[in-house]
Design a protein that fits this description.
The chain is α/β, with parallel strands linked by helices. It is about 40% helix and about 15% strand. The chain has an eight-stranded parallel beta barrel, surrounded by five helices. A two-stranded parallel sheet has the order 6-8. It comes from Liquorilactobacillus hordei DSM 19519.
């Protein structure tokens, strides 16, 4: 009864993860409509541009480049890419379905059959190599029309549009796909609602009431997707997906300890509480008051709350790249650090990546324990990895020992969590093939086991080549985590 588990479980889902808007390209082919990702310019300033009052989801401004339009040409090269995943021995592959490839404007009654056929072929290609598809229904790719015309997720109209989209893809693919996720990093809107909610300052992002209303509408849409999926097949595994950043108080000062507790409640747990437990947490009222949100201004019905309670998720998917430090007692005395849509105070005990993200493998073990202690649901690490500048040697090799070291330490942290008694379903490192960065729109910020010959200006052959990490990860999978 109290035996310690020493190894990864049989059937552990080793694989990799991508998002349609970052690798497919073909942004306007075969009936696809534009998405909000297609309107985001490339470059390190993309978030600053999207966060300006002047930005209003305009498409193709001559001042900017749009690397998502091309991606890595996966739309036409997916067979080559899936074959490489098969060579590595992937047990699963997490990818997303581009909403505007299925419903180009988002509000149509009838789906685009050409878009559905593309995913027919992609899913079949995965199954051909024994790779289990893990599908994110919506991954930062809201149809642009739904942001421009309807104002993004703050509009309850989007619930029915998402329900229609989810029903179409679940009905189409449920007999071939067991594992699903509903919204990617739904809690990221706490700091930056542009990608997950389609909200920018010009359409209401600066009013936190809109963010909370958008979350509620997404929670209702999430519950509807769970309901549809379980009615189709009760064996389907449908999960939420959050951005998780293990958070430490800067010191033992009770003020910082309490500030860190609130950070955990509001950022790491608020969305998961609703989707996993089926109800808003006890700290919600405090959070709303602190952000000047009057609950009377929120459109939440009794029917909504009943739906949330009855249709909770089966597992928790989450991204983990870094940890953060909370300090509210000092001003300007510490250098800040950047991260995955969030930042914080520098942790002197940690090193940072080329992009300033602090590397904390032990923080992953802590995250796994925190999530499992709170929810007692299976956990799926669906994003983790190191964005780095890779150099191609004269012989064509890419020696990415730094990436291997990063992943090795995080897998060891997973083993530690398994010994702690945590139930982990699988591990899909982010950007298993190089793709366009979501945070900066760059190709030079590379995560993959597979190198793609493409630079930040869109130049290159698009040829694929195996990095040293490709062969290392193949051995990890073959040995079910024993060979690191």
């Amino acid at each position: 009864m109290f035996d310690i588990k020493e190894k990864f479980p049989d059937g552990f889902l080793w694989g990799g993860a991508t998002a349609a808007n970052q690798l497919e390209g073909a942004w306007d082919k075969d009936g696809k409509g534009p998405s909000i990702a297609d309107a985001l310019p490339g470059g390190k300033e993309r978030f600053a541009i999207a966060g300006s009052q002047e930005f209003d989801w305009q498409l193709e401004d001559e001042k900017y480049t749009y690397p998502n339009h091309k991606g890595i040409d996966h739309y036409y090269r997916f067979k080559e890419d899936i074959k490489l995943f098969g060579e590595m021995g992937f047990k699963c592959y997490r990818f997303s379905i581009a909403w505007s490839r299925i419903f180009p404007q988002g509000d149509e009654e009838t789906p685009n059959e050409a878009g559905l056929k593309f995913y027919d072929h992609l899913i079949d290609e995965c199954l051909k190599y024994g790779i289990e598809p893990v599908i994110t229904i919506s991954h930062y790719e809201l149809p642009l029309n739904l942001a421009q015309t309807y104002g993004g997720w703050k509009n309850r109209e989007l619930i029915k549009f998402y329900e229609r989209f989810a029903r179409v893809v679940l009905e189409r693919y449920h007999s071939k796909v067991t594992y699903w996720m509903i919204f990617n990093e739904i809690n990221s809107a706490f700091h930056f609602p542009v990608m997950s909610q389609g909200l920018v300052p010009s359409n209401g992002a600066n009013d936190f009431t809109n963010v909370v209303q958008a979350w509620h509408n997404q929670f209702v849409a999430s519950a509807l997707a769970v309901k549809i999926g379980h009615e189709l097949d009760e064996q389907l595994q449908i999960g939420c997906m959050i951005l998780y950043a293990t958070s430490y108080a800067y010191d033992a000062n009770p003020v910082n300890q309490y500030a860190n507790l609130k950070q955990m409640q509001d950022f790491n747990f608020f969305c998961a509480d609703v989707q996993v437990r089926g109800k808003y947490s006890q700290s919600t009222a405090r959070m709303l008051k602190e952000h000047n949100v009057d609950p009377a201004n929120l459109k939440i019905t009794a029917e909504d709350l009943e739906l949330l309670a009855q249709n909770t998720v089966d597992y928790i998917g989450f991204s983990y790249y870094m940890s953060m430090v909370t300090d509210v007692t000092r001003e300007g005395s510490d250098e800040g650090v950047s991260g995955n849509l969030i930042g914080g105070v520098a942790n002197p005990f940690l090193k940072s990546s080329d992009w300033g993200w602090q590397i904390d493998p032990k923080g992953l073990q802590i995250a796994l324990n925190e999530l499992y202690d709170r929810y007692q649901k299976p956990l799926f690490i669906v994003e983790n990895g190191l964005g780095a500048k890779d150099v191609v040697a004269e012989d064509g090799a890419i020696h990415d020992d730094y990436r291997i070291d990063y992943l090795k330490q995080h897998i060891e942290a997973m083993q530690g969590a398994i010994r702690d008694g945590v139930e982990i379903m699988g591990y899909t490192p982010w950007g298993c093939i190089d793709l366009v960065s979501a945070s900066t729109g760059e190709m030079s910020k590379r995560y993959g086991f597979i190198y793609v010959d493409l630079d930040d200006e869109g130049n290159g052959t698009l040829d694929r080549s195996r990095k040293d990490s490709f062969y290392w990860y193949k051995k990890v999978i073959e040995s079910n985590g024993k060979s690191l």
